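Changelog note: in this version the structure field was regenerated for every chain. One regenerated record is shown below for reference.
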Amino acid sequence: MGDGRVRDRIVSDFAAEWTTAWNSHDMKVFADLFHDDAAFVNVNGMYAHGRHEIQRHHESVHAGFFRSSTLAMRVEDARSPMADLIVAHASSELRGDERAPDQVRHTILTLIIERRNDEWKISAAHNTNIVPPAR
C-alpha cells in the first residue's frame, strides 16, 4: 500500500467503528470488524478464535460488567509491511467497568488489519493493560 493517507484512514475508520460498536454495546457490529478466522487476545490473556467466538465472548462481558462501559480510542501508529496488510497500535481508555466503577483502564491494542477479496478486516487483535512502572 503506497499511500500512507489511505492506510491511516483505514486504521482511523476501524478505531471509530470499534469505539462506536463498544459504546452502543452492539457486539454483532463489533464482531463484523473481524475476518471469520480472526484471533483476539484480551487483557487477561483470554484467546478467542474466530469471529463467532469473539462475538460470544464480548456479548457475555457486555451483558455483565461492561454493560455501562464507554471506550475512547486513539490511533498511535500504523504501518504496512506489505501490500494488503496493516499493523497498527491504538491506545484506549475504558470507563464504567462495574468491577471498578471509579477507575479508568488504559490499554494498548495491537491490530493486524488485512485485505482479503477487496475487504479490509481485522485478522488479529491483542489488547494489553497499561500499568504504571514499578518503583
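Spot check on this record: The beta strands are 34-41, 47-49, 70-82, 85-95, 104-116, 119-129. The first strand starts at residue 34 and ends at 41.
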